[in-house]
Design a protein that fits this description.
The protein is built from 10 helices and 2 strands, in the order βαααααααααβα. It has about 325 residues and is mainly α.
């Protein structure tokens, strides 16, 4: 039990009569404990798989070039398909998660991601592989924003940064981990088994997703009071705290959830523009380098073609 969780006796007057409390007030009593750690840990596994799939294509492209004699155009198509549908998946499933729930979207797209990974490993040709990368892009686009929102909705406002920090660190760690695993065993097991190996966190994540409940904040804004209370009782139990039975939660039905046009309203347009520019710059630099460098630094073949990597020769002619 954490120090934050030990604040339960401070709930005070609610023991005498039934009181309607906001979710934030209940979260203050709940604190941070096993319930939050379990949900955050599950989301870490999901995000670890997602970020691995974004990075792995830069490692596999040279091997796929040897396997299927890929043209430059097709290599670009594989890389672009992932990121294009990543953007599309974020817009599409972000809206859906506001309507049907965070957990349902993450569970569905994680199952699809696992199936797409297995099909990628078993791809008989480049066209099947390209189609699987399209599905992977959609799933990643759905998972990344939804996991961030889910992580911030299971604890009091003052603890939100804990979940955000863990997931942000996981994104960076995943990039390093994929490169390390590729260095240690890619040539030994081949690119197909390498994809299967990277799918193992997805299997563990699916098991955990079957255990964790829906986001209480989503249930509250959806007007699902009974489900919200049942979820909170489970959280209190996991944190080894008694749930006061004479507490009822304030809920309301928000009918305008999930409208992407809201970010373009006058009161949000400045934040939307600035955040979009910042995100574009970060993604352009980080993934631009990740995807481009493996191809820029080698002109020879790797994997099955030859074990020799020929460095790029750059000559500068003076006029």
């Amino acid at each position: 039990m954490t120090a934050d969780s030990e604040q339960a006796p401070n709930y005070g007057a609610v023991t005498d009569s039934t009181e309607e409390k906001t979710l934030e007030e209940v979260y203050e009593v709940l604190g941070v404990g096993l319930a939050q750690y379990l949900v955050w840990g599950t989301l870490v596994l999901v995000l670890l798989s997602d970020m691995s799939e974004l990075v792995v294509i830069s490692i596999l492209i040279p091997y796929l070039r040897c396997e299927w004699d890929l043209s430059v155009t097709f290599k670009i198509a594989i890389s672009c398909s992932v990121f294009f549908f990543y953007a599309l998946g974020g817009v599409l499933f972000g809206s859906i998660s506001d309507k049907i729930g965070r957990r349902k979207v993450i569970l569905f797209t994680t199952v699809c991601l696992l199936m797409a990974n297995v099909m990628s490993a078993a791809s008989p040709n480049k066209w099947v592989f390209l189609m699987t990368r399209v599905v992977v892009g959609l799933c990643i686009g759905a998972n990344l924003p939804t996991t961030m929102v889910f992580a911030s909705e299971i604890a009091a406002c003052k603890y939100k940064e804990y979940g955000a920090f863990v997931l942000t660190f996981t994104a960076s760690f995943a990039m390093m981990l994929v490169a390390l695993i590729a260095y240690l065993c890619l040539n030994a097991i081949g690119w197909r088994w390498f994809i299967v190996l990277l799918s193992l966190p997805i299997v563990i994540a699916l098991i955990c997703l079957a255990i964790i409940p829906e986001s209480p904040r989503f249930l509250v804004v959806s007007g699902k009071k009974e489900e919200a209370i049942a979820t909170l009782k489970k959280f209190f139990k996991w944190n080894s705290l008694p749930y006061p039975e004479n507490i009822t939660i304030k809920t309301y039905q928000d009918e305008v959830r999930g409208n992407i046009a809201d970010v373009l309203k006058p009161k949000y347009i400045r934040s939307t523009t600035l955040l979009s520019l910042m995100y574009f710059g970060n993604i352009f630099i980080i993934f631009g380098l990740i995807i481009f460098l493996p191809l820029a630094l080698t002109t020879g073949s790797v994997g099955r073609c030859t074990n020799k990597v020929t460095p790029v020769r750059v000559s500068i002619r003076t006029i």
